[in-house]
Design brief:
Helices cover 19% and strands 39% of the residues. The protein has 251 residues and is an alpha+beta fold. The strands form 2 sheets. Strands 1, 2, 3, 4, 5, 6, 7, 8, 9, 10, 11 and 14 form a 12-stranded mixed beta sheet that branches. It has a two-stranded antiparallel sheet with strand order 12-13.
Length: 251
């Protein structure tokens, strides 16, 4: 039986040659799919070193208890998560984002001067089973909408994570297909946000979502994550970085 560890899986950096050869937009790397706090704060993290649309990037998503979203990313909005989710967030900020591993299951994510976020990861029978299934799925099934809908409907209750979809439409109008091939639980976490303790990890009173992208109601970490955007037919032109920067400064 193959034993997967988050750190070693995260550090197995993909290359452009690993991306599927089709006209869709693609990203590859690893992520904290999401982590809710009983205080109402919510955090997520993406480290996608490989992108078909520009430079790779890291980002942290933060939701306040009042429901306002900010995406912090170390590249311009048109190359990061804001390319797909910008219409649903209140702020996008271009800044450094870092992750440091202190062991195979322990990491510290930082947005300097804003967020310090410690993670402890672990496995469960559910994450091990889903990983064993996902790493064996051929690429063709990851593009089959019937399979993806069934996968989301199955995984959410199994993981006790609420509603989960791995395909659908993002706020900016593009369609997405997410491919998390290895999964772990966030078993413990502490975070400070602008000097404030985020409190204890725990489900939000009402599960949040950004269009069809539902945020899991428990902490999940994924490696060998691929994200495919097969259609941009309904997507407008990305907002120029200069205009985004002006809005951020005004905010």
């Amino acid at each position: 039986m193959t034993i997967y560890q988050p750190q070693s899986s995260a550090e197995a950096t993909p290359t452009l040659a690993d991306l599927p050869e089709d006209p869709a937009e693609h990203f590859a790397g690893y992520a904290v799919l999401g982590l809710p706090f009983t205080s109402g704060h919510y955090l997520a993290f993406r480290d996608f070193p490989v992108s078909s649309v520009g430079p790779g990037y890291r980002s942290v998503w933060h939701r306040t208890p009042g429901g306002d979203w900010t995406i912090y990313a170390n590249t311009a909005p048109e190359f990061s998560c804001a390319r797909y989710f910008g219409a649903a967030v209140q702020h996008t900020v271009e800044t450094d984002v870092d992750i440091q591993w202190s062991g195979p299951f322990t990491a510290l994510i930082t947005v300097p001067g804003v967020i310090d976020w410690r993670l402890q990861l672990g496995t469960s029978a559910a994450t091990s089973m889903l990983t064993a299934m996902a790493v064996r799925m051929p690429e063709s099934l990851w593009r089959n909408e019937l399979v993806l809908r069934a996968m989301g409907a199955f995984a959410g209750p199994l993981l006790n994570a609420g509603k989960m979809l791995v395909s659908g439409v993002v706020p900016n109008g593009q369609t997405f297909q997410a491919q998390p091939r290895q999964l772990w639980l966030v078993t413990d976490s502490q975070a400070t946000i602008l000097g404030e303790d985020a409190g204890q990890p725990g489900a939000l009173e009402v599960q949040d979502h950004l269009a069809d992208f539902w945020l899991p109601q428990r902490g999940l970490f994924g490696a060998q994550v691929g994200v495919r955007f097969p259609s941009t037919a309904r997507a407008g032109e990305p907002e120029p970085a200069s205009e985004r920067a002006g809005k951020n400064q005004a905010a």
